[in-house]
Amino acid sequence: MSLPLYEHDLPGTLIAFCGMDGSGKTSLIEGLSKRLTSRGAEPVVTMQPSRYARESPLFIRYIYHPEERHQVDYRALICLLTSDRLQNIHEVVLPALREGRTVITDRYVFTALAQMRARGLANEEWFFEICKHVPRPDLTLLCDPGFQVSQARVGRRTDWRDSYIEADHDQQLYMNYQIVADEEGLVRFDTNLPVEESLEALYAVVNDRLPGLLT
């Protein structure tokens, strides 16, 4: 079932980057933002869910303390993160799009859908209903270096939260990202390349899908 996102008619452009931890989103977002800035644009870079939501006790308890996970209703966590996404859209995304700016977001509702399915919640009608109030990006890329590569990248991180791996869930999440990509028309993007090569390939995709944005 496809998410019932609406097609925005605002003058700006919304680009979303989705993918596993360690998929290379950060490097691509930074590179695209710099390329736009060098051409006189003022892109807005944002993140969903926000750092505020990621630092909430409920998020930390569920994600980083699996021994306490049975005490948390996963739907409650999804409600928290969905509320945060809606506020981000209202406060950051839509105002920038109205101003004709390019908005680049690290993750979007497609990530929430893949996560929910990986946790065993495949048909949450309430979530689909809320998504009627979410604009569809003009371009969404699924950054994918391959499962093993992304896991290895995460494992090399120094901060314990950034390097946290939940192998069984991560495998399910990777599989569900592929399903969501097919259902939602996400552009699969190979990030198992040197950064400069990935960036050049990214610019080519953007030029093809959003002509004139980088010129």
Summarize the topology.
Elements (H helix, E strand, L loop, with lengths): L12 E6 L6 H14 L5 E4 L3 H4 L2 H8 L9 H25 L3 E5 L2 H10 L6 H6 L8 E6 L2 H9 L11 H18 L2 E4 L4 H15 L6
Parallel strand pairs: 1-3, 1-4, 2-3, 4-5
Structure description:
The protein contains 9 helices and 5 strands, in the order E-H-E-H-H-H-E-H-H-E-H-H-E-H. About 50% of the residues lie in helices and about 10% in strands. The chain has one domain (about 15-210): Rossmann fold, CATH 3.40.50. A 5-stranded parallel sheet has the order 2-3-1-4-5, sandwiched between helices. By secondary structure, the protein is of the alpha/beta class. It has helices at about 25-40, 50-55, 55-65, 75-100, 110-120, 125-130, 145-155, 165-185, 195-210; strands spanning about 15-20, 45, 100-105, 140-145, 185-190. The N and C termini lie far apart (about 35 Å).
Q: What letter string, H or E per element, gives the SSE order? A: EHEHHHEHHEHHEH
- How many strands in all? 5
Q: How much of the sequence is in beta strands?
A: 5-15%
Rg (CA only): 17 Å
Compute the average pLDDT: 93
What is the CATH class designation? Alpha Beta
Reported CATH architecture: 3-Layer(aba) Sandwich
At CATH level 3, the topology is Rossmann fold
Total number of domains: 1
Q: Name the CATH superfamily classification.
A: P-loop containing nucleotide triphosphate hydrolases
- Helicity, in percent? 40-55%
Alpha-carbon distance between the termini? Answer: 36 Å
Any low-confidence stretches, pLDDT <50, length ≥5? none
Basic shape? globular
What is the makeup of the main sheet?
5 strands, parallel
Pfam family, one: Thymidylate_kin
Catalytic activity: dTMP + ATP = dTDP + ADP
GO molecular function: ATP binding; dTMP kinase activity
Keywords: ATP-binding, Kinase, Nucleotide biosynthesis, Nucleotide-binding, Transferase
